Amino acid sequence: MAISKILLYYRFTPVADPKAVMLWQRDLCESLGLRGRILVSEHGINGTVGGDIDACKRYIRKTRDYPGFHDMEFKWSEGGAEDFPKLSVKVRDEIVAFGAPGELKVDEDGVVGGGVHLSPEEVNELVDARGDDVVFFDGRNAMEAQIGRFRDAVVPDVATTHDFIGEIESGKYDWMKDRPVVTYCTGGVRCEVLSTLMKNRGFGEVYQLDGGIVRYGEKFGNKGLWEGSLYVFDKRMHVEFGEDYTELGHCIHCDAATNNFINCVNEDTCRKQALVCETCAAGVATAHCGRPDCAEVAAELARA
Ligand SMILES: [Zn+2]
Ligand SMILES: [Zn+2]
């Protein structure tokens, strides 16, 4: 059986003609049978694709032919084309949607004025040296943090990345402005932008976890400062770094420990994902996101 893989990557670099890069990337992926999502903007590229391992290797070689992407790093993980519904390659104002395309400045070295990059080892060293003074700031959607986060992390109240600017301007986090703040996200891309936005708003000592949770987990498994499962945006829904992980999440219906996200059964009008344990998810009446109207639809479906 052929081995397949998933690639995760991004690069901030000036892209003179995003549309041309988009068309080239789409052709390349189609010809290699890769599926996934790629966004291109004048600030760079952000993608995750899956497919045959040899096709992935070819994709990396070809993509690195573009001068700006020459030293782009690719993270490998388990999975394949079947983890994505289709191939989607698009031009956007931003490769991560913070709603601040005009604020971001990039040059050949990446984002200008972002937080200091720390390797997983350097994050641990910072915590060893500065102790409880260090604040971990979750750069993901609050839902993702329900099943995994850094120890004692601050989890902002955001449903989408668009909500971050309002959050960090709200005053709620001003106590962190003179503390060392380590931002982290899945693979690092969101923190490239978030750390810049925070610095621009008066946070004085901002770091970003280089390579994100993915690299930290590969390095330290469940023995470091990371706890729980990592939410991922494909059919796998979550991944763990070894068997000895803790289930941090709780089922919204019965409160059992779980890391199981489901799509709400009211799929006509609700796009929500919710933490529902496998037992509750198996019963139609409890396979909903918790909203009253969804609960009603679920009850009707269960009676039918
Ligand atoms: Zn349950
Ligand atoms: Zn729902």
Automatic annotation (TrEMBL):
Its EC number is 1.14.-.-. InterPro entries: Rhodanese-like_dom (IPR001763), Rhodanese-like_dom_sf (IPR036873), Rhodanese_C (IPR022111), TrhO (IPR020936), TRHO_N (IPR040503). Keywords: Oxidoreductase, tRNA processing. It catalyses: uridine(34) in tRNA + AH2 + O2 = 5-hydroxyuridine(34) in tRNA + A + H2O. Residues 130-225 form the Rhodanese domain. SUPFAM superfamilies: Rhodanese/Cell cycle control phosphatase (SSF52821). PROSITE patterns: RHODANESE_3. It comes from the Bacteria. Belongs to the TrhO family. Catalyzes oxygen-dependent 5-hydroxyuridine (ho5U) modification at position 34 in tRNAs. PANTHER family: THIOSULFATE SULFURTRANSFERASE/RHODANESE-LIKE DOMAIN-CONTAINING PROTEIN 2, THIOSULFATE SULFURTRANSFERASE_RHODANESE-LIKE DOMAIN-CONTAINING PROTEIN 2. NCBIfam families: PRK00142.1-2 (NF001134). This is tRNA uridine(34) hydroxylase. The gene is trhO.
